[in-house]
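Residues and backbone
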Amino acid sequence: MTVLQLEYIIAVYRHQNFTEAAASCNVTQPTLSMQIQKAEDELGIRIFDRSRQPVRPTREGEKIIEQALIALQEVRKISELAQIHHDVAEGEISVGIIPTLAPYLIPLFLADFLEKHPKIRLNLLELTTDTIIRKLKDESLDAGILATPLEDQELLEEPLFYEPFALYLPADHKLRKRKTITSADIDLDELWLLNEGHCFRDQVINLCKHSGGETYFPNLSFRSGSLETLRKLVDRNYGYTILPELATKDFNGKDLMKLRYFKSPQPSREISMVTLEGRGERLALQGLAHSIAQSVPAHMRRKAGHQAVPILQEQD
């Protein structure tokens, strides 16, 4: 059995569809199917039940796939050892990043990373935390950039920086008179939250010790997946919201005046690179972690002065 056949088998396992698997491998569907059929003939085992949609592995096939994942990981290690020896990072890496971080962080590190590592093909995907975790475990992602700790024994977390929270207030709100605030100052009936499925929502809820979902209007049920939408509501003098600091870096002077930070130690979210055991040592991922950490303000790289807000169990 060849490494290529193993890759095709894993692609079908992940996509649960021969056509999609072939597209992900940049080959035609007949080519992929033929190679998998050759592997099955050689083993005398039917790996996939093609009569089912989506395609599922057979009972015997599950054992083959389990070993195929291990074998491919060992093959990758050989290539990574050679890269470390030559101190040159190359190849392809796929990285998931949460939506409340992606639009603000990616522009900060992307050019630096790509210029320093021209032989790396970087695939960035904006995904929720639960999707990133699932894809890390089935090895369709190499790493995730997300809020931690996750308390998952299968995953390794490398903290990159600590991002403080800030309260974003309407122009005439009474809390604008305060230089700093505490969570006790927050009126939950005025607080706009992201919808369920975002870890930043869970951290805000945890900070405020609140599990409800009120909105500024008692006769309105509103759920948003966008921090920018919540900002626009505040700009129209409807309640207030909590923002991570990177979301405020492009603010003009007028908007900056609407921010109030929390008293020290500042409630913050710990942002980490998360990988499976044995994957984080890849030279490409080490280079990415360095570019990300160096792209944020220096005060975010120091843990001192920050109080990492836990993520609730019902995280994104």
